[in-house]
Amino acid sequence: MAPTDIPIIDTHIHLFDPTRPEGIPWPPKDNAVLYKTALPDRFRKIAVPLGIRGAIEVECSTVVEDNQWVLDIAAKDTIIVGTIGNLEPGTPVFQAQLNRFRRNPLFRGIRYGNLWDRSLARDGGKPAVVADLKALADAGLVMDTANPDADLIAGLVRLTDRIPGLRVVLDHLPKLTPPQQATALAAYKANLRELGKRPQIFVKVSAVLRPIAGQIPENLDAYRDRLDEIWDIFGENRVIYGSDWPNSDTVGEYPKVLAVVREYFTGKGQAAAEKYFWKNSVAAYGWIKRENGQPVLGRAEGE
User: Fold this and answer.
1) Which pTM does this prediction carry?
2) How confident is the model over 1-42, as pLDDT tens digits?
3) What is the tens place of the pLDDT at every residue in 206-216?
4) Which residues of 141-164 are buried (b: 16+ CB within 10 A; e: fewer)?
5) Using CA atoms, how far apart are residues 244 and 247, in angstroms rounded to an integer?
6) Top CATH class, 3-285
7) What residue spans define the domains of the chain?
């Protein structure tokens, strides 16, 4: 199998439709790059020719009913193999909402982190939040973090101390800017190494392309040190692929976003590349195979 033949599950895309009568909370109207319809048919045209066989939607709306909107959209297009929704732990309605949405097997978990005026570092130790996230873990669902920083990393250590059974996907780690102050940097690195010891924590190697010295490099060498750090800490069994489409369009077209990580992970050998591009996402999300060509452990159908 050639590297370009490895099937890919993209574990981080966003869906929204600015033409909906009620509008959308994100992206804003003044964002010319993003403020356009992003639905599965558009994603298919871009991604399938590149080897993407399925995708997990990650919620980008604050509106609870948009969880259902995404599930309804996903029901019509089998390229969507799961969704990570938006529910707020620590609120009186959380567990009822969780019980409602988890009935749909495409609902694979929730986002919680530095997003929507929420803070894992600030609130992750509150008893109501802990109870709700334990309910999430008990349901066999996953927590995706959002917008990582050093405080979130520290908060995630504390949270998973309290809920060892909580499966976590640490989103967009390559874009985190480490602290500059020596003591804070040492604490951050120690916390990251601690997370590396916890097998229930996965890292989404996404949002790799980013501005560096006023430019957005498209060559692997510009990002290799950060990718090496993640690889050295988390290893080949805990890294997964995500594009952040269409938000990724702000830094580069999809083929460029994919090319950098494809070069890096195929350089680790076929077995490691297969783990990164799809096998580890099965362990992280337990996503639902919905069409021929989407891989299953033991074989990849449709090849």
Assistant:
1) 0.96
2) 555 689 999 999 999 999 999 999 999 999 999 999 999 999
3) 999 999 999 99
4) bbbbbbebbbbbbbbbbebbeebe
5) 6
6) alpha beta
7) 3-285
